[in-house]
Specification:
It is built from nine helices and no strands. With 189 residues, it is mostly helical. Helix 2 packs across helix 4.
């Protein structure tokens, strides 16, 4: 862990709000992107994003430096996303009305404005196809795949975040990749 990050965490643990805000600014984009990828809904992702920072602020005094702060925030984000998905299922079960997930695509916020318009359209179309496949995966496969291939976490780090064996993580990633290959084969002859 970076010594300056350790200093920020220790200052935040002593009640320094400015140190906590600086610490959060270093991680906020990654947290929002992860929430968008897992939830597929801007409003839910923004709600989880806010909950992550509230929860981490409330519990920073308990942070024990056993893992990186980014791993800690990722774990909180994944847990809150799982809770949000459970809440969605309960709402859908209780309501006959469709809650409507179509509030804009997370991909729109992930594609850079600096690329050419035709390249943006191609990336957006491919991203939508990938998102469609990911959305239909079990959450554990989607999470493992996202952490490995989009965020670049190692198998060991993902196992730590997910609190499971490395073999389990490898299995989830393998299954996710196989599903993506099958579903996206028509796009890559």
């Amino acid at each position: 862990m970076d010594p300056s990050e350790i200093d920020l965490i220790q200052a935040a643990q002593r009640g320094d709000v400015a140190a906590f805000e600086k610490l959060m600014r270093e991680h906020d984009r990654g947290i929002l992107k992860l929430a968008l990828l897992l939830l597929q809904n801007h409003q839910d992702a923004q709600d989880v994003y806010q909950e992550v920072f509230l929860k981490s602020f409330d519990h920073i005094k308990y942070f024990r430096f056993e893992s990186s702060y980014n791993t800690y925030l990722t774990r909180i984000t994944i847990n809150l996303c799982r809770n949000r998905i459970r809440q969605r299922r309960i709402r859908q079960w209780l309501s006959l009305d469709d809650e409507g997930e179509g509030r804009g695509s997370p991909a729109e916020s992930l594609i850079s404005d600096e690329t050419a318009p035709d390249e943006q359209v191609q990336k957006l179309e491919l991203w939508q196809q990938i998102q469609g496949v990911l959305q239909n995966m079990p959450l554990k496969q989607r999470t493992a795949f996202t952490l490995k291939h989009i965020y670049g976490y190692s198998i060991k780090e993902i196992a730590e975040i997910e609190r499971c064996a490395e073999g389990t993580v490898k299995n989830h990633i393998f299954r996710a990749v196989q599903k993506l290959k099958r579903q996206l084969q028509p796009y890559f002859p």
